[in-house]
Amino acid sequence: MVFYIVETIIKAVLVVAILAAIAGFLTYIERKILGLMQRRLGPMYVGPYGLLQILADGIKLFCKEDIIPSNANRFLFKIAPLISACTAFIAMAAIPFFPEFKIGDHVVRPIISDINIGILFVLGVGAIGVYGPLLAGLSAGSKYSLIGAARATIQLLSFEVVSGLSILAPLMMIGSFSLIDINAYQSDGFTSWLIFSQPLAFILFMIAGYAELNRTPFDLLEHEAEIVAGFATEYSGLRWGMFFIGEYANMITLAFLVSIIFFGGFNDWGIIPGGIAILLKVLFFIFLFVWARAAYPHIRPDQLMWACWKVLMPLAILNVLITGIILVL
What we know:
This protein is mainly α.
């Protein structure tokens, strides 16, 4: 038991340390890809090819004055960024990042906790993250922050419904909520990937994921063109940075989820070993997130809600119904 506890703590520390560093590096990658797509250079001056820009941004966030508005609720204002960052990393506890491997005689499982309701745990903890922007907007004492908080609540809760319904059909086929079991279900090769039997579920889950990540074209929580910076308007320094570390960590989580649920996870991909295969899939989906930000304009809140309740949710229910009929027959 002592060994298991120590091993779990080491895994948790490694996940937080490595993925927090990767999330920070993703800000540089995104700026460079956006620069390439929009015919500009992106970060160039700090270090070779601008690689030290991440360090410069980190120093700036550490040294920047932490301002709390005089009419803010100080306790809620301080705790809101912690909620956003912590829920993003806690959700990773049930995600199997790589296949098992051995160190000497000991088998290492690259998952912090293999619980039998893994997918529900990830979605549930991710949903709790809505309290971060909600409390940030409510506690700041600013009308711009309040509008951002209202949009955050409406958008995230609405699309939680779509994301839950969209994966219900694949789960009916698999018969398990464990991400390990979902990965094993697709172990028979390329043709067993769920993207081929559940393409509509994949599309719906991706759209809902974009909305929950607050990524363009669904970035209504901090729509710069309308409400300055949304729920984060009054934040500065490290508290501001924690919101966006959480956003990029959630992006990594979603990329792993989509890869595991619909694209064969960490099973071997032809001659490509499983560990490398899932990394390639995750990198591809992260590139898609950045590509969408560069290519698509913002949409209005009423358009987003119309698409959620009148298009996406009925399609998700229809997909569940058709899948159930096929399984019964």
